[in-house]
Amino acid sequence: MQAVVMYGGGGGGGVKGSISTKSLAVGFRALKSQKQHYTSSLDFSNRNSQLSSSSSSSSSSSGLRLNSLSSSSSMATELTRSSLFHSRPVLKALASSPSDGGDVEEVRPLKSEDDVTCALPVPQQQQGKASVLPFVGVACLGAILFGYHLGVVNGALEYLAKDLGIVENAVLQGWIVSTLLAGATVGSFTGGALADKFGRTRTFQLDAIPLAIGAVLCATAQSVQSMIIGRLLAGIGIGISSAIVPLYISEISPTEIRGVLGSVNQLFICIGILLALVAGLPLAGNPIWWRTMFSISAVPAVLLALGMAFSPESPRWLFQQGKFSEVEKSINTLYGKERVADVMTDLNVVSQGSAEQEAGWFDLFSSRYWKVVSVGVALFFFQQMAGINAVVYYSTAVFRSAGIESDVAASALVGASNVFGTTIASSLMDRQGRKSLLITSFLGMAASMLLLSLSFTWKALAPYSGTLAVLGTVCYVLSFSLGAGPVPALLLPEIFSSRIRAKAVALSLGMHWAANFVIGLYFLSFVNKFGISSVYLGFSGICLLGVLYIAANVVETKGRSLEEIERALDPAV
Fold first, then answer.
1. Residue of 312, 132, 260, 248 lying closest to 493 (CA atoms)
2. Fewest CB atoms within 10 Å of the CB: 158, 289, 496, 529?
3. Where are the transmembrane segments (predicted)?
4. Which residues are CB-contacts of 17 (< 8 A; sequence separation ≥ 6)?
5. Tens of pLDDT along 162-177?
């Protein structure tokens, strides 16, 4: 025989489920043995709870199964300590409707083990939020390395070129810069396959190998070949990181703060770039300092591997692998034991709709999945083709035109704008939503690009061209960091179903790195042929196209669990 239990949560709807009476009796005795920890009353005034007995058609079911309950009415039910822990514990408390005053209609004592209904205390959501943060922090070491390796060569290139004897060879210098992007493209595709095969935490540990070895090779390079190999390995490492950091964070984050934690990925990328800038400050007084700059990056790689040894695996990946005991252990570590049944039920609901194997690469292009996969690819296409890297590459020249001669000051201003905007975006992500931030961001970028274009060509603005160019650059970077920067990496793991999530994220990030590589390769050629003003005007047009695409194709995911989103977007679930 089974009984029904009702839970009330402080931040969401109540949940209802069934449990075997034998298991409930054991749990009830455990509650009774710890009665000294309870206050004189248990107040459930924030949740409408109906407690009723029920029988289950599946008598073999012994585990807790919870289903979400939406209720528009409210009530208060108070069970006093003397009632709950009396010699005959409470069996049933039926509450009247709000119109009746919400009083308890009936309380009957326990007569047998087979006749039980029980109310349990409210789970503590805040505990789950806090327990996730250390593991998000460990994962973000990958994001810091992402940003650091992107930025470290900017200050170091001039000095390492002298050390390696390639000052006059712009082609080899270009290879040292672009090899990182080529490696990242390979790594982003590899990361999805590794994450599916070995799990998220093990992939992080594997990722630390090319990151650490690449850093050491770059720091000790005595030839261009060694430097390029080191940069290639580091690129593979940051490519894998770019795929699995947002994936892991989205899969372990509680729904109510997933937006904030997801945007932390972009914030730490920005911090990594700033750290690379700061690390380059001693170069003027110590020309061989560039070796130390590269060697420093090996430390976070080692810490990432060690940290992931103590971090829980993604419950969603474990569930896909059928490792149910490990799933419960992971959920307990991440959110606390109060939410184990809750999360397990969400995972069960999705698995009941689809018992398919993991998708292959070609499945991503099927009619079932391509529509949602194309959204991820398009978002990263618009992100890169909107000109963010071009603006950063050209920012030094723009600031010099305004009388700012210091390259460090120019880079610092751009980097600080990026960090500031991303911090603001983090606070708005779960309030304003992903889609609205994307639209606002691309509109701001379009306006900033238009201002930059006009500042170079409109004669009436000639006296203010330098100031307007700086203003346009800063506003562009701010607009980018408010949505176009952090949202795609957060949104993609949310909209992709668990069956295709890792591979679809990898494919989308492959577009990111490919577009990044193309912009870096052809930007200056386009500037020389068409002029900087025309190129910026083209970027403005791409931003407007991005706004139209987002408005028509992107769905809002704010406040919805990954399983809810999957059920909404995949009719087969």
1. 248
2. 529
3. 132-152, 172-194, 228-249, 261-282, 288-310, 372-396, 436-456, 468-492, 504-524, 530-552
4. 4, 5, 7, 64, 65, 66, 67, 341, 345
5. 999 998 887 888 788 8
